[in-house]
Structures are given as C-alpha cells and as structure tokens.
Amino acid sequence: MKYFNNKLKIENVSVHSLARKYGTPSYCYSFNRLKNNINCFKKNFNSFAPLICFAVKSNTNLNLIKEIKKFGLGADVVSMGELMLALKAGINPKKIVFSGIGKTSKEIEFAINKKILLINVESRSEIKEIERIAKIRNKKVDIGIRLNPNTDAKTLRQISTGKKENKFGVNDKIFFDLVNYCKKSKNLILKCLSVHIGSQILDHKPYEKMLQVIDRIIRKVNYNFEFIDLGGGMGISYMGNKELNYKKYCSAINKFLKKHNSKIIFEPGRSIIGNTGFLIAKIIYIKKNGKKNFVILDAAMNDLIRPALYGAHHNILPSERRNKRFVKNYEFVGPICETTDRFSSFKKFQELKEKEIVTICDVGAYGMSLSSNYNIRPKAIELLINGSKVRIIKKRQKLNELM
C-alpha cells in the first residue's frame, strides 16, 4: 500500500475506486504481499526446510487458503470446521496438524479418518479418548504431545499461551507420563513434541528460552521425536514497532538441530497474512466533543474486534493525502453501542471530511476471522487484489440473509 500522486493504492488499484465500486466496509488483500511474506518466511528458515502449516484460525477465507496452498504450505487447524476448510482448499492431509485443547470425540474421529499428519494432544483425557476411538476402528494414530514450557513470550496477556498459568499444553511431569503411556500403547504412535508460547512475539529471546526447555525435556525423556512443532506467534509491525529478528531465531534452531535429528514444524498465521489485509471504511460523521474529535466510521468492532478485544493498535490512512491542515486528537470509532467500539487515536492527523474514505491497515490476521454479526450488521465483502486485477473472494452479506 502506497501513495501515488497523493492517492492511496493497494497494489495498482486506488482505495477510492474500490470503495466506489464495492462499497464499504470492505476487506482487501494484497496478493503480492502475501506471496512475498511466504517466500521471505521460507528463505529465513531455508537452512533446515521446515514444514510450514498456515494457522487457519488467523484467516478462514477459502480462496486465500487455496492461494496459500499453491506455495506448498500445510495447515494448522483447531476445529473440525477448520480441518474441513483446509481439505476443501486442497491441502494435503499429510501436511495438516490438528491442535487445540478441547477436541470432541466427533472431531477426533473425523481427523483419524482423514489420515492427517498429527493430532497434537493437550491432556491425559484427550490421549485416552484418541486411543479409545483408534481401538474401535483398529487403527494406529500419529500424535504429538503439547508441552507447556512455562516461557513468557513478553506479549499481550490475552494472547500468551506458554506460561504455566495458561490453559494450553501439559507440564514436565505429565509430559513424561504421557510419553511412557504412548510407548505401551498399540494404537498411538508418538511422533511429535509440540509447543506454542504465544502470539505477536517480536523478541527472539523467548524462543531461545523455549528451545532450551525443549532440549532439556528431550534429554530427560530420552525419546527420539520425528517432529518438533515450534508453533508460530511471529509478530508483525502494526504501528512502526520493532520486528522479530529471524536470523537470531534461525540460528538458535540450527544450534538445537545439531543435538536433535528432528523435522521442524511451524504454524505461522499473522506473519503470513497479517500485513496483506486492509479494511476500507467511509466516514459517516465527524463529531466534536470538547478537545476530542470523534471520526465515526461505517466499520465497527463487529468488523474488526482486535482493538476492543486486545487493546490492539492499527494504523489508519486517508485515501487522499493532503498537507494543508492538521487536526489534533482524532479518535476513530464505529457506530456500535459499545464504548470499546474504537480503533485508534491520533494526536495529530490531517483534516478529514465527512463521507471521505480511510483505510485501517494490517487487518489480514484475526480481522475477518473474528468478525461477527453483532448489532445485526452484515459481514463485509472480501477482495483479492493482484496488480490491477480485483477478485471478489467472498460476497458481502445482505440483511435479508440474516433475518
């Protein structure tokens, strides 16, 4: 996304023309940025060629997942619905990992029948349920065990998953017990040690600590894991903040692999899709209230809940850049009857007018996938932009469909 002659464009298409033709709010994705993200991710870790399983929860658009599949990626899923979506997109079952702490019997049975690569187990009860279903069907099931490494990812409290107080994974003692349980089982084949310490991680040091914990656990349990699933969580720069040092993370993994002969699995979501997405919105009203100027958009927290849910910040850009006048204290909000229906605040922003178009940046991950019909608001249209070509990849919902 760049300005050309002061007009904001996504690839070669102006934001204003997209709003005029397809309406607002609209989710737009840059194909070339998606391609570049995938190729850069592969390049960063090409020294050991990991299996990259895209975290479907970050973006569930079928057409986007089909595009991601073309680059050879697999899928990390956390529900039967996500597994069905990945299979519908044509992803090879042997590149699919099923994660999550609350898989139902129906979901487990479905995954077994589809012969996916791994079911990552997160409790004693789950491992026994998988074994029970496998026995009935007279099958052997490839599984992983998710370890909780008690590692602080130094990220938002709401998206931390690797500390002992988090609900995910099992502690050292239970991990050892489950490994021994699998050794005796005729229906379970333990292939993977899995971890995932959080999301939007911008510092390589928590990853280094995580690898040290895994190294210690493997030495103590004395078991040869075919796969080490390191999860995802790699962050992106939303408001010009620092970026993860991939070179140092890769170096730490190579150091780990000198001691352990395992295939690495990654489950990236945000780092693949996050900065490809843009939410185009129209200004309904500008409301002055004391020292604050509220810019009321036709997009709302039902379209993008991250700021309300996490206190996340997204940059916002005007469709036309003007350098004449600037206004202090603009706060961009939506029309929903909730105080948390707000996007970002700016101490200084160019003067805007009602009916103008603005773009909320970096919404590709956990934007549309967390959207809802709250206040009976139809979900936005989704567009894929490749150069000058625009393709509708999901139609805008209509009110009569919600009635």
Brief account:
By secondary structure, the protein is α/β, with parallel strands linked by helices. The protein has twelve helices and 20 strands.
Task: Give the SSE layout.
Layout: E1 2-4, E2 7-10, E3 13-14, H1 15-22, E4 26-30, H2 31-44, E5 51-55, H3 62-70, E6 74-77, H4 80-88, E7 96-98, H5 105-113, E8 118-121, H6 124-136, E9 141-146, H7 172-184, E10 188-194, H8 205-221, E11 227-229, H9 246-257, E12 263-266, H10 270-273, E13 277-289, E14 292-297, H11 306-310, E15 316-318, E16 326-333, E17 342-350, E18 357-361, E19 381-386, E20 389-394, H12 399-402
Parallel strand pairs: 4-19, 5-6, 5-12, 6-7, 7-8, 8-9, 9-10, 10-11, 11-12, 14-16
Antiparallel strand pairs: 1-2, 2-3, 4-13, 13-14, 13-18, 15-18, 16-17, 19-20
Helix pairs in contact: 5-6, 8-9
Rg, nearest Å: 23 Å
Q: What class would the helix/strand composition place it in?
A: alpha/beta
Q: What percent of the residues sit in helical stretches (DSSP H or I)?
A: 25-40%
> Whole-Å distance between the termini?
37 Å
Tell me how many strands there are: 20
Residue-averaged pLDDT:
93
